Amino acid sequence: MSADPTGPNEPAKGKDGQPGLVSAALSGLCPRCGAKTLFAAPALLADECAACGLDFLALERGGRFVGVVTMLFALVLILAALGIDAWLRPPLWLQLSFWAPVTVGAVVFALRFYKAMWVYHSYEESQP
What pLDDT shows up at residue 46? Predict the structure, then answer.
């Protein structure tokens, strides 16, 4: 039986000891040091890592396609809402109270995942 070197509170590590993309998106982990400094707000990248000084804004090249990600998620959520409305016919107040937080949460997660993906991809390309 082999012991896991990471404790229960340690993030999952990918290749080269970097944190994995999903844990980075959820926790906002720096690709270089793994500190929780990738995001300054729920879906806003920080300028640089407070722990190691890595410039995140220089690594994020895909910022102009954020609207496409948001529109794709909006399309999926609209189709899901229409399907549930046709299937269950819930009252309007119930639809609004359910879909408003689901939409905000899904879009914030999608933006965090998308931005973390671009930063991690750029960081891996910049490493020798």
Answer: 92
Q: How many Å apart are CA 44 and CA 116, to the nearest integer?
A: 10
Mean pLDDT computed over 69-97: 93
Give the helix ranges, DSSP H, for 5-51.
21-27
Q: Where are the alpha helices (DSSP H) in the chain?
A: 21-27, 56-59, 66-88, 92-126
Task: Give the number of other Cβ atoms within 10 Å of residue 19's Cβ.
Answer: 24
Q: Which of 52, 11, 46, 16 is nearest to 119 (CA)?
A: 46
Q: How far apart are CA 30 and CA 118, in angstroms?
A: 12
Give the span between the Cα atoms of 62 and 120, in whole angstroms. 12
> Is pLDDT larger for residue 21 or for residue 49?
49
Q: And the tokens for 66?
A: 């954020």
